[in-house]
């Protein structure tokens, strides 16, 4: 049993973390094969149509809010994100369990997509797991605070990433920010939401129910935000892919 209530065995493995890494690697292999290039793996129509962009939004390709989170611009982009997923994913999956970890990852991905869709869509093509991974970094921070651990090293890492997001070209700071906020909100709902219950009523079942209710509310908000943006974006007739 971990400090936050999830059960682990001696032979426990971060299966979901490894599975997510595998899916990202497979998606990269697909993009490299489709484009005929590892370095310029996004240069194909099949791959570009899975990215988050004005074209995708104007043509109601709502699934790009998800598929874009599994594509990467080149091997370095992939390796950096997968290493970070490996480091933080294992910790959070063990601390909270696979289901909660999966919810944090998925909703952080959607949070990053929602932020880009609403505030940074014009003249951009956005791909990468960074939104989901920033959500995991936020989740780790919330867990540090919940367990009263010193978050200094994590705050330094967050600060470095914030500076990089604003100073390096080609980085979607909106995707990072949206993922971070979503990840923090979901994790806070899971670990702090049950504290709204009276102490004498905090059974395991009720604690889980409150935590998952918080997750459900956040999921509904994100899905609605993405759906509204796709549904209200201007006419697609002026957009073409060459």
TrEMBL record:
InterPro entries: Peptidase_S54_rhomboid_dom (IPR022764), Rhomboid-like_sf (IPR035952), Rhomboid_protease_S54 (IPR050925). Pfam families: Rhomboid. Coiled coil: none annotated. Keywords: Hydrolase, Membrane, Transmembrane, Transmembrane helix. The keyword DNA repair does not apply. GO terms for cellular component: membrane. The keyword Zinc does not apply. It is found in: Membrane. The chain crosses the membrane at residues 12-32, 70-89, 101-121, 127-145, 154-174, 180-197, 209-230. It is a multi-pass membrane protein. Residues 60-190 form the Peptidase S54 rhomboid domain. SUPFAM superfamilies: Rhomboid-like. One of its GO terms (molecular function) is serine-type endopeptidase activity. It comes from the Bacteria. Belongs to the peptidase S54 family. This is Peptidase S54 rhomboid domain-containing protein.
């Amino acid at each position: 049993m971990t400090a936050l209530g999830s059960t682990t065995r001696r032979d426990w493995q971060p299966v979901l973390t490894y599975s997510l890494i595998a899916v990202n690697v497979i998606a990269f292999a697909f993009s490299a094969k489709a484009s005929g290039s590892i370095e310029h793996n996004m240069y194909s129509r099949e791959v570009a149509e899975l990215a988050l962009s004005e074209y995708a939004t104007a043509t109601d390709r709502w699934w790009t809010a998800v598929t874009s989170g599994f594509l990467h611009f080149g091997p370095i982009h992939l390796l950096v994100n997968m290493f970070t997923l490996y480091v933080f994913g294992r910790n959070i999956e063990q601390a909270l369990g696979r289901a909660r970890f999966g919810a944090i990852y998925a909703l952080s991905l959607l949070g990053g997509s929602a932020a880009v869709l609403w505030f940074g869509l014009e003249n951009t093509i956005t791909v990468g797991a960074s939104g989901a991974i920033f959500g995991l970094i936020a989740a780790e921070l919330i867990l540090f605070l919940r367990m009263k651990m010193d978050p200094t090293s994590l705050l330094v890492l967050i600060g470095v990433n914030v500076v990089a997001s604003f100073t390096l070209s080609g980085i979607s700071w909106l995707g990072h920010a949206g993922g971070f906020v979503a990840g923090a909100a979901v994790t806070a709902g899971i670990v702090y939401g049950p504290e709204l219950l009276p102490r004498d009523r905090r059974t395991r079942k009720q604690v889980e129910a409150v935590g998952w209710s918080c997750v459900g509310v956040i999921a509904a908000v994100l899905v609605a935000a993405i759906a509204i943006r796709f549904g209200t974006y201007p006419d697609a007739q002026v957009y073409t892919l060459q």
